Structures are given as C-alpha cells and as structure tokens.
Amino acid sequence: MTATLETLDGLSRRMTLNLNPAEIETEVSKRLGKIAKSARMDGFRPGKAPLKLVAARYSGEIRGEVLGDALQRQFSNAALEHNLNVAGYPQFAPAADGAFTATFDVFPEITVGDLSSIKVTRPVVEVSDTDVDRTLDVLRKQRVQYHTVEREAAVGDRVHIDYAGTIAGEAFQGGEAKDFPVILGEGRTLKEFEGGLMGMKAGETRTFDVTFPEDYFAKELAGKTATFTATVKMVHEAHLPEVDDDLARSLGIPEGGVARLKDEIRGNLAREAKRRIQTRVKEQVLSGLLEVTPFDVPASLVAMERHALLEKAVTDLKARGMREQDIQMRDEIFEPQAKRRVALGLLMDQLVLANDITASNDQVQALVGEFAQSYEDPSEVVAWYQQDSSRLNEARALVLEENIVNWLLERAQVTDEAYTLEKLMGNK
Question: Which option is the CATH number for 265-425: 1.10.3120.10, 3.40.710.10, 1.20.210.10, 2.40.50.100?
Fold first, then answer.
C-alpha cells in the first residue's frame, strides 16, 4: 500500500491511497465466511445457507466496510508517516486506476501576536442606593393592583376600551377590538392613540385621528392616518404595594424585613454587574486576540461547528413551539459565528498548553457556589452540580476560560472607566 500527498489551498490537503485488491478480496471472503456460519435465510437452517447466496445478499455491504476500514487504516498510517496534524475527518472518493483520494484539512501553525497591543476598556460599577430603590420599584410594579375609579383617565391608569378604526372610511385589519386594556403612558400603543384616550371617563366616547409611523411594522398601514372611535368602559387606578415586611415576605424574604430585602437586591445587582463586566471584557480581549493573531481556520472544523449551531437553533425553536417542517434555516447563516468559535477554540487551546493555564478545584467550587447564590436554597444547587461530573466539567470549562482571559488581561492595555449601573445594563 502506498500514499502520495498534495497541498491544496490553505490548510487543505489531498492524499492518494492505493489499496491492494488481493488483500481486500481476502478480507471480504473472510468476513463473508464468518457471517455464513450464523446467517438466517429463508429455506435454510441458521448457518446452512450456501456461501453463494450469502455472498449475493451481504457482499456489497461487507465490501463497503472492508474498503472503509482499509482506507481509514492506510490514511492514519500515512498521516503519521507525513507527521500530519489532521483536523476533522477525511472525505474519501474513488479516483483513477482503482485508487482513492482522501481530502482533509490540517491544523494551522499558530504564532500568537503582540498581546500588549490589545486595548480593553473595563467598566467599574458601584451599586448605589438609587439602583436598589429603582429595582425595588420594578418589583413593586410587577405586583401592581388596579382599583376602579370614577374620575378622568390620567397617566398610569389602565383603561378598558372598545374601539374601531377606519382609513379613508374603510375598516382595516387589526383596527377593531373589544374590552382592550391600555395603560396610559406605558408606550405599548402609539403615542397619539394613548393621547386620544387621556382625560376620558367611563362611558365616554371620543373620535380622534392617529398617523402610523413610516417604519410601522404593518407595512400596509405605515404612514397612513386612521380615524378611531373609542369608548372607555372602565378606568382603573394603579396601586403599588407598600415597601414593608409584607412585601419582603412576598418576595421570598421570611425574616429581616425591608433591610434584608434591600441587601438581597444589592447582592443580586452586584452579581449581575460582575457578569456583564466580565462579558464585556472577555469580548474585547478575545476580539483583540483574534486581531493580533491572524491565521487560517480549517474549513472542515468550521463546517462541523456550523452544523452544531444549526442543530442547537432548530432544537431551541422546536422547544418554543415551532414545527420542524416550518423551520427554513441553512447552516451557512452561522458561518461567521462558527469561524470565530473555531478560531478562538484553537487559540485558547494553544495558550493553555503553552502557558500551563489550568482551572483548580477550588475555583470550580467557588464558581458553583456563586451560581447557587441566585437560588432560594444554594445548598441544593451545589449538590446538583456535585451529583454529575459533566455539570462540574461545564463549570470547569468556564473557569478555564476566565483564567485565560485574566492571563491575557495581564498582558493587554486595560483602562478602567467608571460606569453607572444603568449604563452597564444598557438603559442609558
């Protein structure tokens, strides 16, 4: 058996494999003989069918297996002989004169660039009392109760209305509803529509015009003016719960009252801020690493990653209720994401090996403990991780990634910048 190697574009290689036909036939005969000893065929006892009949039924399948085994074996030996670091799996195809070709990629030789040229802006955030109070207000609004009032509707009130709209005197799809709730000032309906309802009382009817924005999601209505007639059926005033021990208990704080509640909120905000800062910093560091270390990425690994991302996306959509036959998606849309993920994986593997970066058991346990703090009973969460080594391995991978990022940060240009929590959260 012989093999020749060609270098194609970039990391792609092609190997020509020449198999020994006599050895293939010998192995096919040997395997058919083994099958014949137990083969079940109509009209014959097990193992008593003529070899000719067994061969007629099984020879094609057996020959394919023998060829596949021989090609894989010769390819592996030749790869060792040529000192090839094969990425992914070879694609075998028949060639001229009974030979076969194996097309495959090799891993790139990566030389890490100048890490000191990577620039990172790291947000610095202090959780303030205002942040805690703002979050507390959100929690109160989630528990709002509405009471019927007889006055005119104002900002913050919920009104229930019947309405019908026309454009140029004609009704349009979606332009009519019964007992429709609108919270004035919330902005879930068009501003002009809410403005037309402001100041109305229960039982009152009003007609007003609303112009749909040019970028309105319903293209057939964009830029058009509709005339609405609306009747207010009820006006409800919002009542928020008091900030007291009862509110704390309703939010899962059985003891300690408002002070303990605020401490819990502050801790949760601090953990979320830390997570967002880490995400921002990691994105900058890894993007910088890719910029200073350009290299070719094995196309076969990118294709595998694209397929994995597609499968995950389809699974997520099905979990949300979509039917598989309705999901029209091709893995090509994941090409940039897949290429980046493969490139970062190769880079990070090299950094780990070259610099002995590891994830200690103490770090893994600390991360699991941090995860657990967001739950009512942290000890149950910790035990859940401890029961399954795969869960701990996921946590270990996160720690290792964090250690790699921290190692890179020590070598990069890092500028700390004061942020408010709102700015970090993207609210300002």
Answer: 1.10.3120.10
